[in-house]
Design the sequence.
């Protein structure tokens, strides 16, 4: 049950932090503390029980949320991290992958997106992470996504896909065997939250080319690639 899940909020905007706290407590998650600095977050996680950290990237001290997340992952790899950020830039997303984060939430927060992302993070155990420094990620049915070239191949031959389809394959490949929420995917592809029907239409077109079993729908809240 949610009441057994302990969440730490690391956010230097008190109004935003209290909003997250109220929303998650309403869903019966336990908020163990609200912390405003990276240094405090690291020390708290070293000394206390915690299942998930909502980590703001920009904090009030000289340790960024990205640096704090990497340090927490080093000492407590079982703690799940979700980044909080006002930016949907590729660089911020790369930080999330490097810190083995389960996702990121874009400000201003949307209640549905928050709850879906947290629920997805708790829906499965930590999977082995893809080393994104590797050029190629092997996928199901002989597909290989080339990070360096930004292209998808099968049996050595390039698969013709549009720019948005490749962006979708990229974010799912970087999170291979992990669920990625509809909101996260939309933010990565379009830089904004889109209607679910827009994403579904893109998935449908991709499946016509790649087959139906490569990209799987997860409880209508997101997708993963095998």
Sequence:
């Amino acid at each position: 049950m949610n009441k057994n899940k302990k969440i730490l909020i690391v956010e230097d905007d008190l109004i935003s932090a209290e909003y997250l706290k109220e929303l998650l407590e309403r869903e019966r998650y336990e908020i163990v503390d609200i912390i405003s600095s990276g240094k405090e977050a690291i020390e708290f996680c070293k000394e206390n029980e915690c299942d998930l950290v909502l980590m703001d990237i920009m904090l009030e001290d000289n340790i960024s949320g990205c640096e704090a997340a990497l340090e927490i992952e080093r000492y407590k790899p079982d703690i799940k991290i979700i980044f909080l950020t006002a930016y949907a830039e590729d660089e911020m997303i790369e930080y999330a992958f490097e810190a083995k984060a389960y996702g990121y939430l874009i400000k201003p927060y949307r209640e549905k997106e928050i709850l879906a992302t947290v629920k997805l993070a708790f829906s499965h155990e930590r999977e082995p992470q893809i080393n994104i420094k590797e050029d190629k990620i092997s996928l199901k049915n002989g597909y290989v996504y080339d990070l360096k070239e930004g292209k998808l191949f099968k049996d050595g031959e390039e698969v013709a896909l549009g720019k948005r389809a490749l962006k979708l394959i990229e974010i799912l490949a970087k999170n291979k065997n992990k669920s990625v929420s509809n909101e996260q995917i939309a933010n990565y592809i379009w830089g904004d939250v889109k209607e679910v029907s827009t994403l579904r239409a893109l998935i449908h077109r991709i499946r016509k080319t790649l087959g139906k079993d490569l990209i799987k729908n997860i409880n209508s809240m997101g997708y993963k690639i095998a």
Summary: The chain is about 40% helix and 20% strand.
